[in-house]
Amino acid sequence: MPADDQARVELRAVTKTYGPVRALVGVSARFDAGQVSMVLGANGSGKSTLLSIVGTLTRATSGKVSHGSLGKGREAVRSVLGWVGHDSLCYGDLTGRENIELAARLHGLAPRAAFEAARARFDIGAFAERPFRTYSRGQRQRVALARALVHQPKLLLLDEPTTGLDAKSVEGLRAVVRAEAERGAVVIVVTHDASFADAAGDARIALDRGRIQE
Questions:
Q1: What's the confidence (pLDDT) of residue 87?
Q2: Cβ within 8 Å of residue 64, ≥6 positions away
Q3: Residue 3 above 60 pLDDT?
Q4: Does any domain span residue 85?
């Protein structure tokens, strides 16, 4: 699927404050469809705040955020959004299959077909019927990705997705984010893993104490 030229996220002079703390300071950046954009920086640099603003969970204190053709309002953007956080937020007492089928229902999709597609793509058949809380970190990541991608989102956000993964799982993650970009999605990955950024990314910005490093 070719990238939509108007599918992009732009931040212009975005500042976010929490009381006296400035999490982001005058950040301007552009994230285009069809590429994997990496956001790097140390803990506390503002990476997760930036992702939260892009994902409409947090409003900027000042500056402008545009989602282009992805949507004009929060609900429109959220309908085309897939998000994998550091904490998967899957339901621990549901099975992997049930978590994926629930996401499909919420997006108005056929749950069984959605699960079958996810099972084939993410190789989750061996553990899909066990409670999610029994999974390893790698298994949790596969189900979280399957759930986030069930509706083929136009905007995919990932927050520190390589944490706790072995080399094989990191390579699988790289293949997934590359495939989503090639499908035409806007893909933004927050990470402190420079080697993953080199292997999977097309563009990058680095944050330091809330500011973009030149």
A1: 86
A2: 10, 11, 12, 13, 14
A3: no
A4: no
3-state DSSP call for residue 133? Answer: helix
- Same domain, residue pair 4 and 71: yes
- Looking at the predicted structure, is the pLDDT value of residue 4 above 70? no
Mapped onto helix, strand or coil, the DSSP state of residue 192 is: coil
Q: How many domains does the chain have?
A: 2
Is residue 141 assigned to a domain? Answer: yes
Q: Is the pLDDT of residue 98 over 50?
A: yes
Torsion (CA) 91, 93, 98, 100 in degrees, nearest 10: 30
Domain finish residue from 150, 176, 197: 150
pTM of the predicted model over 0.90: yes
Give the percent of the chain with pLDDT over 70. 98
Q: In this structure, what token pair is assigned to residue 166?
A: 């072995």
| Cβ partners under 8 Å of residue 42, min gap 6 | 192, 208
**What span, in angstroms and rounded, lies between the C-alpha atoms of 152 and 81?**
9
**What is the arithmetic mean of pLDDT over 41-54?**
95
**Residue 36 confidence (pLDDT) above 50:** yes
Same domain, 13 and 67: yes
* Residue 198, burial from CB neighbour count under 10 angstroms (0-12, 13-18, 19+): exposed
User: Can you tell me whether residue 21 is helix, strand or coil?
Assistant: strand
Helix (H, G, I), strand (E, B) or coil at 27: strand
Query: Domain end: 150, 169, 193, which one?
Result: 150
Residue 67: which domain range?
1-80+153-214
